[in-house]
């Protein structure tokens, strides 16, 4: 049974990975076989074998052609070309440093524009000039980093603080180390400063986050600095993906080591999940093993925290949607997902529970609904949604029909498109379940 699934899963997996391979993350190792070899779970070992074989593959759906990124439909520049207006960032596009980035909450799309040019407050004249000239800045950013890395004393705004942190940690002066980390925090949120901190100090940041001999409150502060650096900062995410490809794996292992879930451990695990959400959303192929989903499931059902649960659902959703969008037969998608998430029905239950949460934001609602839609499309009758979900869907159909008909201008095309998709899904995708539940209802009478 397992072998049959594995064989069917293999092509799906190759497709899944090759998109990333094409992006020149050539040193990215999805699942380090050594870390899995220690694990007793046989399924995980099988997955690692698959990961190794698939690294040879070159097929994909977004590929680089010269300076362009291409998919089946069209090509666009590999390097995002910023202007003073907000523009949509297309899939896998590289972003120069120093841009303002936002996620448009109505469309769910990432957008970027030139920064205001006042982010830098140090006395490095060269950088000031660069911010005046966007085109040069794009060229210079990578050079700048290289130069700084090779500089003899490696000085920059925060070098003294990090020297101090290292000293405090070596001497076991943890409250002092914590104080310094807290001071760093506000700068880590800044797009440019965050990039500097991450590219110079990630060795320290990751080793503190993962070191079980260091007090949890210090590790928790440290993971908050990491979260601040990576959030809304694609160049930092890319830097970590390229230079610390095992970081996601190490976080999963670290979570698995947790024996006793005290309050402070809960907080640390929450921060870990925040990091995973950002990194896996950027690259779903990070997460591939049965063990990963089992870890997420355990955290989901152990720690009662709604925000945390939403984030875990985002991670699972990123993976499912990635598989769904592969160009393979639905039955292979189904078997591929079942191979790593045998408990898929549990996740269906949670997605359908949280999608109808009264406080849910529209972008979460769309994400979770789309995941249920994708799962139902690939699994058909093999997964079930419950009657409360179907009732919610009926209400949503009415609300969204009214919204489509309200004649207000200007229209948000993405909103309208989603509304139509939801309305049509009632019969096209969830139709059978509707009929079944009505039938059950009559049977019960
Ligand atoms: C973990 O932290 C302790 C205490 O600061 C230190 O002695 C040890 O070398 C660290 N271990 C690693 C792997 O960094």
Order of helices and strands: HHHEEEEEEHHHHHHHHHHHHHHHHH
The quaternary structure here is single chain
Low-confidence stretches: 1-60, 117-153
Within the largest sheet, what's the order of strands?
Answer: 1-2-3
- Largest sheet features: 3 strands, antiparallel
What features would you describe in this structure?
- It is a single chain.
- The chain has 445 residues and is mainly alpha-helical.
- It has a domain at 78-155.
- Helices cover 65% and strands 5% of the residues.
- The chain is built from 20 helices and six strands.
- It has helices spanning 2-21, 33-37, 42-54, 125-132, 134-150, 159-170, 174-188, 191-210, 216-230, 234-243, 247-257, 263-282, 290-302, 306-324, 330-340, 344-355, 362-379, 387-405, 413-428, 431-444; strands at 63-65, 68-70, 75-77, 87-88, 99-103, 110-114.
- The chain is globular.
- Residues 1-60 and 117-153 have low confidence and may be disordered.
- Bound molecules: 2-acetamido-2-deoxy-beta-D-glucopyranose.
- Residues 169, 207, 211, 213-214 line the site of 2-acetamido-2-deoxy-beta-D-glucopyranose.
Notable characteristics:
445 residues; 3-stranded antiparallel beta sheet; 20 helices; 6 strands; globular; ARM-like; endoplasmic reticulum; signal
Draw up the topology in text.
Elements: H1 2-21, H2 33-37, H3 42-54, E1 63-65, E2 68-70, E3 75-77, E4 87-88, E5 99-103, E6 110-114, H4 125-132, H5 134-150, H6 159-170, H7 174-188, H8 191-210, H9 216-230, H10 234-243, H11 247-257, H12 263-282, H13 290-302, H14 306-324, H15 330-340, H16 344-355, H17 362-379, H18 387-405, H19 413-428, H20 431-444
Antiparallel strand pairs: 1-2, 2-3, 4-6, 5-6
Helix pairs in contact: 1-3, 1-15, 4-5, 6-7, 7-9, 8-9, 8-10, 9-12, 12-14, 13-14, 14-17, 15-17, 16-17, 18-19
2-acetamido-2-deoxy-beta-D-glucopyranose binds next to loops.
